[in-house]
Specification:
Elements lengths: L3 E6 L10 H12 L2 E8 L5 H4 L6 H20 L6 E7 L2 H12 L3 E5 L12 H9 L3 E5 L18
Parallel strand pairs: 1-2, 1-4, 2-3, 4-5
Length: 158
């Protein structure tokens, strides 16, 4: 059913992945899908803001994010699941949507919001991705967290 699953995460906020990652892993195991884990480094927005940072700050930040993402995958993703690491730079929802098209993902799995946005059903990035994605989007909410190693049951014909 699914061949390529995109999981956008924020490496600085465990809440962006701690519920969504087990669901994505379960789906990958159930369908033999490839997992594309991405993180987005926000841009500065205005070029004048960038002038306040050291010369190679952007390049060093992207390289650091790539290192962190590889470490994250090593620690959190079991062997046997094919993973692609993606580090993007720009506006979060725009980069998620562009990456989905580029890799041909047929499902995006993402957390609903960070805890500090508790008054909202969906965070602003998740809401925009849901509205504009060319594929199905599974937004993982609430306390329905899977335990490590717990499998998602899938029955054909359901």
């Amino acid at each position: 059913m699914y061949k390529d699953i995109l999981l956008p995460i924020d490496l600085g906020h465990d809440s962006s992945w701690e519920k969504a990652l087990p669901v994505a892993l379960g789906l990958c195991q159930a369908f033999g899908a490839r997992l594309h884990i991405m993180t987005v480094i926000p841009d500065f927005g205005m070029s004048i803001v960038g002038s306040f940072f050291p010369k190679d700050f952007e390049k060093d930040t992207l390289k650091g994010a790539e290192t962190q993402l590889h470490e994250f995958v090593r620690e959190q993703v079991p062997e046997g699941i094919e993973v692609q690491h993606i580090v993007a730079h720009g506006t979060v929802y725009e980069e998620v949507l562009a990456t989905q098209k580029k890799i041909g993902a047929d499902l995006i799995v993402m957390g609903s919001h960070r805890p500090e946005l508790a008054d909202y059903l969906l965070g602003p990035n998740a809401a925009r991705v849901v509205r504009h994605a060319d594929c199905s989007v599974l937004v993982v909410r609430g306390n329905e967290r899977l335990r490590p190693g717990q499998k998602i049951r899938y029955e054909r014909g359901s």
